[in-house]
Amino acid sequence: MNAPTSVGVFLFVDMPSLFEQ
Question: Is pLDDT larger for residue 20 or for residue 9?
Answer without folding.
Answer: 9
